[in-house]
Design goal:
The complex is a heterodimer of chains A (319) and B (146).
Chain A lengths: L2 H8 L19 H5 L10 H27 L28 H4 L9 E9 L6 E9 L3 E4 L9 E6 L5 E9 L14 E8 L12 E8 L5 E8 L19 E6 L22 H7 L3 H11 L2 E3 L19
Antiparallel strand pairs in A: 1-2, 2-10, 3-4, 4-5, 5-9, 6-7, 7-8
Chain B lengths: L7 H13 L2 H20 L6 H9 L3 H11 L5 H7 L2 H11 L5 H8 L3 H21 L13
Helix pairs in contact in B: 1-2, 1-3, 2-3, 3-7, 6-8, 7-8
The chains are: A alpha+beta (319), B mainly alpha (146).
């Protein structure tokens, strides 16, 4: 290995050695495996079929993975590679269209993703704040009309069956006692810092993706953005100027603010018979999809932010 | 198989973690990819390891792009690699980071081994040229500007 080759090799980021998520000898009883699916609404027929299959697939997967780990069984080269690729089509390690990997995209993976761009007026109609979020191509975004309580950017992501997945709100809060981000009130199972850009407006909006369980009245999975810091102040340390409206950010299974907290929650906030079931769930493709959705949120703000995002003035006559 | 050698699951997870910087996410992706490969195997279709990598990394393409954009700002060999064309940077990483054989690289790219070898050669040449332009000391113990 010559010096350049060694430097290329040394440039590899250090990563923690992988540990197998499920013990090789562990077998999940069928009841537990099937318990991954409770909490689905009756109308969710398509998803129910998928989720029902998950338990059976999980058993098969565990057995196969146990064999793989124990025996180090590799996959032999039997698939015929697709035709040669054009270099310019390969992007960031992603297989190109028409390549072997694309042709054999796993059924559980959303095959196509798209980026939705959401615009909301900033201080007046002349400038706006822009948010982008990645979602499976079959999902869509429904915008809510601005209201006195939620005058900012307010949308709900729905899946292919029109069932709510996650709600996003970013903007001023009418409730000055709200936290900029929803505080954690559950048993955390997974957490990862994300950079949405919202922290440019207020460091208290620095956020992290979190998945955890609410324990009362039943173990229910809850996902969304939470404050990035976990210090004594669950609301974070806001540095906004006195007199300016409090900006809040919510993106997850529950808006968790005022009367909207009683609104129907996400169909993907699943209930679990045990905490262990929830730990199995975070290994699923559905969870990976939710995580990608939530962590893909990015904001762009006007260069001139001297005009603050204002709450509608109720005293002002509306036209 | 000797236990000292990493299993395919470990290799796959490390491959994903190096690119996403998130070991938890890497394990989720790896598990899903194995689940898919198991389904393929039940239908009598064997999945080459390179193809398994390609399928596993697909959902993380956006996250990897963001990370590459970030690394590309660095004045280092890693930064130089991140500025290469996607196919070139990937072939370098597959060979030097993940220790894939050329057959596995070819499976990953969906091309012939000869084509994969040509891409590696081109990627190496471009990296060497840029490193020279940036006056990197290509010595055994330096990864800093000369």
């Amino acid at each position: 290995m010559n010096p350049l080759e060694r430097q290329i090799s040394d440039a590899a980021p250090w990563v923690q050695p992988a540990t197998f998520p499920i013990h090789a000898g562990e077998r999940i009883p069928p009841d537990d495996a099937e318990a991954l699916g409770p909490g689905l609404p009756p109308s969710r027929s398509t998803a129910r079929v998928r989720q029902g299959d998950l338990g059976r697939k999980l058993l098969v997967t565990i057995a196969a993975l146990a064999l793989l780990v124990a025996g180090g069984v590799g996959f032999s080269a039997a698939l015929q590679p697709a035709s040669e690729l054009h270099d310019s089509n390969l992007d960031g390690g992603r297989p190109v269209e028409g390549g072997a990997a694309v042709a054999s995209t796993p059924p559980g993976f959303p095959a196509e993703w798209r980026t939705a761009t959401l615009l909301s007026p900033w201080a007046d109609a002349s400038i706006s704040v822009e948010a982008t979020v990645e979602l499976p191509a079959a999902w869509s975004v429904r915008r809510h009309e601005p209201s006195a309580e939620f005058p900012g950017l307010h949308v709900t992501v729905v899946d292919e069956d029109s069932l709510p997945v996650a709600t996003l709100y970013f903007g001023p809060s009418a409730d000055q006692d709200s936290c900029p981000l929803r505080a954690e009130t559950f048993v955390p199972l997974q957490r990862a810092d994300v950079t949405t850009g919202a922290q440019l407006l207020d460091p208290a909006l620095a956020s992290a993706f979190s998945y955890g369980l609410t324990t009362e009245p039943e173990p229910r999975g809850s996902f969304g953005l939470v404050p990035q810091t976990s210090n004594a102040n669950p609301c974070g340390d806001s540095v906004r100027d006195p007199g300016t409206p409090l900006l809040i950010l919510r993106f997850g299974d529950l808006l968790g603010l005022g009367p909207a907290a009683t609104a129907p929650r996400s169909s993907y906030a699943r209930t679990f018979a045990t905490v262990e079931d929830a730990r199995h769930y975070v290994q699923s493709q559905e969870f990976a999809t939710l995580k990608r959705l939530i962590t893909s949120l990015k904001f762009s703000f006007p260069e001139d932010r001297s005009q603050l995002w204002q709450l509608p003035d109720n005293r002002r006559p509306s036209n | 198989m000797p236990s000292e050698s990493p299993t395919d699951f470990e290799r796959l997870t490390m491959f994903l973690a190096r690119r996403t910087g998130d070991t938890d996410y890497a394990q989720i992706l790896a598990t899903d990819a194995f689940r898919w490969a198991t389904g393929q195997a039940q239908e009598g279709i064997d999945v080459p390891f390179g193809t398994l990598l390609a399928a596993a990394v697909r959902p993380a393409a956006a996250a990897i792009r963001d990370k590459d954009d970030e690394v590309a700002q660095q004045e280092s060999i890693a930064g130089i690699i991140a500025t290469l064309r996607p196919v070139e940077r990937e072939v370098l990483r597959l060979v030097y980071w993940d220790q894939l054989s050329m057959g596995e690289v070819a499976d990953y790219l969906g091309c012939s081994m000869a084509r994969a070898g040509a891409l590696l050669d081109k990627a190496y040449t471009h990296t060497e040229r840029r490193a020279t332009q940036l006056r990197y000391a290509l010595t055994s113990d330096a990864d800093e500007p000369a």
